[in-house]
Amino acid sequence: MAPSLLFNPAKLPPSEALQLAQQAPVVLQGSSSPSETVDQWATFENLLLACLRTGDDEAAAKCMDQLEARFGPDNERVMALRGLLSEAQAENNGELEAVLKQYDAILEGNSTNLVGHDRLRQLFPDRRFANPPCLRLQPITKRRIALLRSMGRVSDAATALVQLLDFSPTDAEAWSELSDLYFTQGLYSQAIYALEEVLLLSPNAWNIHARLGEVQYMAATTSGSGGGSQQKYLAEALKRFARSIELCDDYLRGYYGLKLVTTRLLKEQAKQAKQTDDGEFTLPDPKTIERLDELATAKLSEIVRHSTLKDRGWRGYDEREVAAARELLSQNGIER
Amino acid sequence: MTWISNTITVFGGLLLAHACYSAQEHAALQSFRAAATSTLTSSTPVASSLPVDIAIETIVATLVIVLGLVLGTRPLRPIQWRVWAGKIEREGEEGFLGNNGEVEKDYMGNPFTYLESRPSFVDIRRQRKEFAEWIKNGGGDAGKK
């Protein structure tokens, strides 16, 4: 089934992005009709992104022109897209710097200088107060951060992102980006903190619960800070995966994580006698962990069985995820 | 299943039409008779009630139509969060087909994927590079099939 142009193509695999980009001539042709439909501009934006990704710059430029003609070059979203276009077409670092300067110029010219800020500067002349980024210009602020990160200036990107979050702390997407940024730097506790902020903003997001569990599991497997914090991370991860399953029946990712964590917990318990010392966290008792482990195994093998047979109503899973689950099961010596 | 519900609905419609027709005929006959018998006296309209069988037929027809329509509805959407979310994960687009066999317009998959794909922060240069590599590794042929 061809993916829909109504949704952002960022997460699609390359083959589907290609399918989308190949629709460009048809969509661009059909756009000459004078009546606007609700989905028209979302379609154009996503088509632009797909074309940029597949390297079809010509079609991307056409989409861009249409968007600009409709919303005007001053529209902040259009400006961000225009920047994206030049980012994609930049060939060397110098050109990227130029794009970055452009973003800076836009942001400088429009930064809202709040009255309160002047007062703060008077009161504390020795401290620096950055101009708050204009909320209207958020798309461009975000592009600037993404570009900084793409250019490898990670710490600059983190600073800018923290600044953005200072002024709009309810932006779940930005928190998630911050978490990913810290995560790639190996700063697990910061990444976990940022993900917890995301969960505060969207507590029902089952994929974020699973993500947090994954990060905590990785923190537990890599942290060299002794058994205590390791166990704490594992206990937290167990809770997170359990919550993600609670929010979503038959969630492959959640069960996969649950299986990983319980296997590890059971192994560690066998290795070392129980370590029940600090009251900061409590591991569930071994029986519960065993039962969770059994549940995860049963569910995983059910999912793997059904989706290998392509049963009706079980075709929504990602094939790679199913393959990974199969591998995990066979590693544990459980045959389907 | 659709043909059953459709047949029932059409049958109910026929019954209803028949009942209406009967009622109309009955009324016409009544007024004709009244006009014929009481031309001299001041024409007080005879308060004639419908025969019971027409009334029953109308009610039965309505019930049959309702039955047909109810049978023909799509399965209801899950109202529990975890069931709904599980359906998205397990069945994907297939679980949300409309009557015409196309994916429903308001289907959007997991509404929280944007928190992981983060479209505002997309690194377009890396995506382009990855795509070019995918093409180079023969991914393009697989995509065209």
TrEMBL record, chain A:
Where's the EMC2 TPR-like domain?
138-221
Localization recorded for this chain is: Endoplasmic reticulum membrane
Sorted alphabetically, the Gene Ontology cellular component annotations on this record are: EMC complex
Look up and give the organism this protein is from.
Neurospora hispaniola
Recite the UniProt keywords alphabetically.
Endoplasmic reticulum, Membrane, Repeat, TPR repeat
Instruction: Provide the residue intervals of the TPR repeats.
Output: 172-205
State the PANTHER family in the record: TETRATRICOPEPTIDE REPEAT PROTEIN
| Official protein name in the record | ER membrane protein complex subunit 2
Family listed: Belongs to the EMC2 family.
Its record classes its membrane topology as: Peripheral membrane protein
Q: Does the keyword Cell wall biogenesis/degradation apply?
A: no
The annotated subunit structure for this chain is: Component of the ER membrane protein complex (EMC).
Q: What is this protein's function per UniProt?
A: Part of the endoplasmic reticulum membrane protein complex (EMC) that enables the energy-independent insertion into endoplasmic reticulum membranes of newly synthesized membrane proteins.
This protein's record includes keyword Endoplasmic reticulum:
yes
Record-linked Pfam families: TPR_EMC2
What PROSITE patterns does the entry give?
A: TPR
What InterPro entries does this protein map onto?
Answer: EMC2-like, TPR-like_helical_dom_sf, TPR_EMC2, TPR_rpt
Automatic annotation (TrEMBL), chain B:
* Membrane topology (UniProt): Multi-pass membrane protein
A GO cellular component annotated for this chain's UniProt record is: EMC complex
Name the UniProt record assigns to this protein: Magnesium transporter
Q: What family does the database annotate?
A: Belongs to the membrane magnesium transporter (TC 1.A.67) family.
Which InterPro entries does UniProt cross-reference here?
EMC_subunit, MMgT
Q: Which UniProt keywords apply?
A: Membrane, Transmembrane, Transmembrane helix
Which top-level group of life is the source organism from? Eukaryota
Indicate the principal place this protein occupies in or around the cell. Answer: membrane
A single BP term in Gene Ontology:
protein folding in endoplasmic reticulum
